[in-house]
Amino acid sequence: MISSQAARREPSGYPALEAENLSVRFGGLNALQGFSFQLGYQQIGGLIGPNGAGKTTCFNLLTNLYEPTEGNIKLFGHEIKGAPSYHLFRWGLGRTFQNIRLFHRMTVLENVMVTQPNSSFFRANHQHRKDALELLDFFHLADQAEKKAGSLPYGAQRRLEIARALAGNPGVLLLDEPAAGMNPSETYQLAEQIKEIRNRFQVSILLIEHDMHLVMGVCDYLWVLNFGQQIAQGTPMEIQRNPAVIEAYLGRKERSEC
Amino acid sequence: MNRLWRKKRFFLGGLLALLLFVLMHSLIQSGLVSRHIQSLFVPVGLNMILALSLFLLVGMLGELSLGHAGFMSIGAYAGGLFSKVMMHVLPVWVRFPLALLVGALVAALLALLLSVPVFRLKGDYLAIVTLAFGEIVRSLVINLPFTGGAAGLKGIPKDTSFSFLYWIVVFTIWLTRWIYYSKIGLEWRAIRDNAIAAEACGIPVVSRKRAAFVFAASFAGIAGVLYSHHYSILTAEVFGFNRSIEVLVMVVLGGLESATATAVSAFFLTIAPEMLRFLNQYRMLIYSLMLIIVMIGRNTQWAKPKWFQQRRENA
Fold first, then answer.
1. Closest in B184, B190, B205 to A103, CB measured
2. How much is the ipTM here?
3. The domain made up of B40-314 is a member of CATH 3.40.30
């Protein structure tokens, strides 16, 4: 079990998050096949691919919502197999969801406070409230702390979901389409914010995203999936020039066009 | 809401409770309150405790339980039998608190046993299982050799006094409010709002649900002990399905958002049928109509004054 904060912050020879030969089958469908990756300390990794490529399936495997048919996953060098989802959060794996899953009838502040670690079993103390407000301030939500989470505008709800995951002081943050439904200027702000999050909270980030401006601007390293298989990996520059990726997104060129 | 304000409110609430207590006590002593009104105090108090304990489950945890009266019944019989056996052994000031403890513990224990299989289920299924549980308790009580059967359990010492009940109700209201904002209350509400996200946010959903179930059951058990030590006679029929539903109606009418509102709703729904006695045979008809109108009105805009809506939004 990973208990000390130091273990999550200092490189210990292990990658922050690592998957080996990850496969899952649903009936006859190979949703993910032999996918391996390593996410380094404070690296921002991107998982991209067309619809139905197996990206969200991969996230659900990483958070133990699904059990892999084959392969294993290591968080800071520790096997996560069989651990219940809530343990993973305590071990430092925070996530957001593609379709926002906030605690919508609770206030914004309560949404953050509920995930804070080590707050006393019964009453959160003054320090926890202060920490939570500080975190909300970083996400420009402090002035709406007493509002119901469900009443926030869409973009703010997305930010709150990230804040909620960060309140648990994770070492690895999984973001499932953080820019979905955002307009270009909001997406730009989000990109800046993701980089800031990495530096300020010292987390490794793995994100799924369809917005290529965001992905290319933010990520250090990319893995491309198509039909459950990895078709490419590399830095954003390499990926942009990779013919297999271009084919997966745009289709093959007809010979007659040449 | 900062700490100072919370402290202030705690003392204000305590002061208000004390003033109300002195007022009611002196009214009873001076004989200004009729016997009829006095006989309402106990059902009002008991319903408040019951509604608040069910509020934990339905309001905070968001799980529907239709067998809450079953736990009250268990508490009532456990505490009642204990007091009957110990009647001539222990003085009242030892016996009664112990009876409350016994009632609460036995109800909690059974809730713990039930919660192991029950929380493999969700929503409607959970409601059906708890409904069945309530019926099992009722038929067991009728058929077991030591509960007095259908004739009822008689001769339980009348230990529940007005002041004791009053302070237990005040304590329950305070405790429920406190739990609502405590860490475990936050976790329960998180589970209510989104169980998948709650699990992903480090909350062990199933064990937290069990905790809520056991806690609510033990408070229902305490209400049962108070009941048996007031009326001195117990029959299984009192704790039937109807009673579970009655309490559920109080909780739902209270709005599922606030402990205080639940207590107020329990108060009005308990006295309403009594206040309508002058209608004779139309009493329950009018009561039901009232209930329907209030339930519809609760969710429509015209029923709420403007300032109230704004306050809710800011809260």
1. B190
2. 0.87
3. no
